[in-house]
Write a structure and sequence with these properties.
The complex is a heterodimer of chains A (562) and B (100). By secondary structure, chain A is of the alpha+beta class. Chain A contains 21 helices and 7 strands. Helices cover 59% and strands 9% of the residues of chain A. The chains are: A alpha+beta (562), B mainly alpha (100). At the A-B interface, helix 1, helix 6, helix 9, helix 10 and helix 11 of A face helix 2, helix 3 and helix 4 of B.
Chain lengths: 562, 100
């Protein structure tokens, strides 16, 4: 089908890159924002703008909160068709309680699971989650969307397409295509070393765009490869669910074997027993970590089979100073506080896995690296966006001659995924500041409304991109690029001003007088984006004025086959 | 023969399907066989699962590109579907031995 290896790779690069590139833009952009997901949460939920807190006292603070918890609505909706008869009005048998925190969390996320009577699949549990102020135990209103960690973050790996996990599969395919695009891209371009240093911004758009595409791809090649690959590894059990399907018998056998070696029961016993002081167990765990020369805070704490005689408490050390998210688990018998088990050192496969996934998820403390992650993610966006523009630039004059609409459609989609995505992102931030704290009865929850407005903003940007796309079919520039850049600049400034007006947190306050970097950082980033967008507007205006169609242009060999 | 003429009529479609679906079938077999083999060699189930998926994601990438680079589309489908089926069957056989 293809004349040679290089041409086959060029085909893969062009067409898969084009189709899945739109998804990859979302993954890289929202992935980059997710690096600061908790900081964006602080910006979006002003009540949570205080300093990060350690894991609070379980006995005094967490236990009463856990005891009041019940499954959330999504969980009950999910279970309704999976039980024989109606769901109970109160769930009393707690499967587990858990809390997770990092060095960047002022508020604490807590989770609980319950056993469901008369459920058909015994692995199904009811679940619930809440966010609390760990200083007081007060619940944060759950109708507020944590825009960073509950919207941008899941967007980058699931696109918020929850139907049968469709989003995960699309993103998985996109990650595979990213890897394939990197390899095929290297195969296509023989002069890879030279491309580290080649950027000719003054040449024709097509040439300079290709330079920038190669530069951003090659410069951050290890970054792009690593994140696409580890993204696949993190969700490998979704993509290849062998443990729940073909190898279920073996998996269950191993669970029983593991239970024997760890002494941690997989099934709940029928006998009941009260819960001893968990704070004493935490103190003992911390004493043991200190004795090993690695004093630390609690990152993850869980109680399994709550209320049963074989209930146990697991305490994991926060991974603030290492790559693994949490580790060095110590397990206690819940009814007595007796030590059951100290996790042995990691095996080699486990070390490799926690290293790879931990580097992707980066919950450790390293602010410089954190910013480099953002830079890497944005370089990925530059690489993909310039890929689109190169695709269009290479074809639009030809299409203008033949009357094809191909490059016009691709260009409009590129506008939608580049500036349109920024507009959608700014829409949700602005909506978050503009919507009243309490909405009238009968309205959707505040968080849901923000969610809808995000998509409405994006759809509007898409419509605009298509409506304004006619000049592309004549080989010219789509004015939507310039107009949407202008909108981005205006909206980013508006978001900063609205934050000031609605919370009183202006930059002089958050940087100098009452320093609070999470909010200051988001504001400064927004202002920098506004400046860049304004610059882009000016350059695009100049280009549109200077535009004179040049129909014959010499094409180099590389341009011809890319 | 009808199948082969279909291959000739839509070669690009069949290559895309081979790269995405065919390679997936092969990789499923690889994951299953690796997990069973590693556990048979004494590794814990989750460790085996992690190691198997890391190796297999790299295989997926290679097969994905090979589906376009190979000259014979019939061979591509033979290796991907056949290899996947054989490895998956071996995995089930070995599992049956281990669990019994």
């Amino acid at each position: 089908m293809f004349q040679n290896f290089r041409l086959s790779m060029a085909w893969v690069h062009t067409w898969f890159g084009l189709v899945l590139g739109f998804v990859l833009m979302i993954c890289f952009f929202f992935g980059a924002l997710s690096v600061f997901d908790r900081e964006i949460d602080r910006w979006a939920i002003p009540a949570s703008r205080f300093a990060p807190q350690p894991m609070p006292s379980f006995d005094k603070l967490l236990r009463p909160v856990f005891e009041d918890m019940q499954p959330n609505k999504e969980s009950l909706d999910y279970l309704r068709s999976r039980v024989d008869g109606p769901l109970p009005s109160y769930f009393s048998t707690v499967h587990s309680w858990a809390a997770y925190t990092t060095h960047r969390d002022p508020v604490l996320g807590i989770y609980a699971e319950w056993e469901v009577p008369k459920v058909r699949n015994e692995d199904d549990t009811a679940w619930g989650n809440s966010t609390i102020d760990p200083r007081t135990g007060m619940l944060l209103p759950d109708d507020q969307l944590k825009i960073g960690s509950q919207f941008f973050y899941p967007m980058h790996y699931g696109l918020h397409l929850t139907w049968h996990g469709l989003g995960y599969w699309i993103v998985g395919l996109a990650a595979l295509v990213m890897l394939a695009a990197l390899v095929s891209g290297v195969v296509m371009h023989r002069k890879i070393f030279r491309e580290f240093f080649t950027f000719r911004p003054q040449k024709a758009t097509q040439r300079s765009v290709l330079d920038l595409h190669n530069l951003s791809g090659v410069l951050a090649l290890p970054f792009h490869f690593f994140f696409a690959f580890t993204g696949l590894v993190i969700f490998a059990s979704i993509y290849f669910p062998v443990a729940e399907t073909q190898l279920k018998p073996l998996h269950e056998l191993h669970e029983k074997l593991e239970e024997k070696t760890t002494g941690l029961p997989h099934e709940r016993s029928r006998l009941a027993a009260p819960l001893a002081s968990v704070d004493a167990m935490v103190a003992e765990a911390q004493r043991r970590w200190e004795a090993k020369g690695m004093a630390g805070e609690v990152g993850y704490l869980s109680v399994s089979h709550v209320g049963a005689a074989n209930s146990y408490v697991s305490i994991y050390r926060a991974g603030t100073d290492r790559i693994a998210l949490v580790g060095d688990g110590i397990h206690f018998k819940a009814s007595t506080g007796q030590l059951l088990r100290e996790d042995p050192p990691r095996t080699t496969p486990d070390s490799l896995n926690t290293f790879l996934t931990g580097l992707h998820l980066q919950h450790f403390r390293h602010w410089l690296l954190r910013w480099l992650y953002v830079l890497g993610g944005l370089l990925g966006c530059v690489c993909i966006a310039t890929g689109f523009i190169f695709f269009v630039e290479k074809r639009k004059k030809q299409h203008a001659k033949t009357g094809s609409q191909g490059s016009r459609v691709v260009d409009a989609l590129a506008v939608t995924t580049v500036t349109g995505m920024l507009i959608a992102t700014l829409t949700i931030l602005i909506a978050n500041r503009v919507l009243p704290e309490f909405l009238p009865v009968g309205w959707p929850a505040r968080g849901d409304l923000e969610f809808y407005l995000f998509w409405a903003g994006w759809l509007l940007a898409m419509a605009h991109a298509f409506v304004r796309s006619a000049p592309v079919a004549q080989g010219q520039l789509n004015p939507a690029w310039r107009e949407q850049c202008w909108a981005v600049a205006g909206m980013a400034v508006a978001a900063v001003l609205l934050n000031w007006i609605t919370t009183g947190d202006h930059l002089i306050r958050t940087v100098f007088t009452h320093t609070y970097w999470p909010v200051a950082g988001v504001d400064l980033f927004l202002l920098a984006s506004a400046a860049l967008a304004a610059l882009a507007t000016r350059m695009l205006t100049a280009r549109m004025k200077a535009f004179k169609p040049k129909l014959s242009q010499p094409q180099t060999e590389e341009l011809a086959h890319a | 023969m009808h199948y082969l003429s279909g291959l000739r009529a839509h070669p690009v479609l069949w290559r895309v399907l081979a790269a995405v679906v065919g390679a997936y079938v092969f990789c499923w077999g690889e994951v299953a066989l690796c997990v069973v083999s590693f556990t048979a060699l004494g590794m814990g189930f989750e460790d085996a699962e992690h190691l198997a998926s890391m190796l297999t994601m790299l295989t997926y990438l290679v097969l994905f590109l090979w589906a376009f680079a190979a000259s014979s589309l019939v061979r591509v489908w033979g290796v991907l579907a056949g290899g996947g089926a054989v490895m998956a069957a071996l995995a089930s056989l070995l599992q049956w031995q281990l669990v019994a």
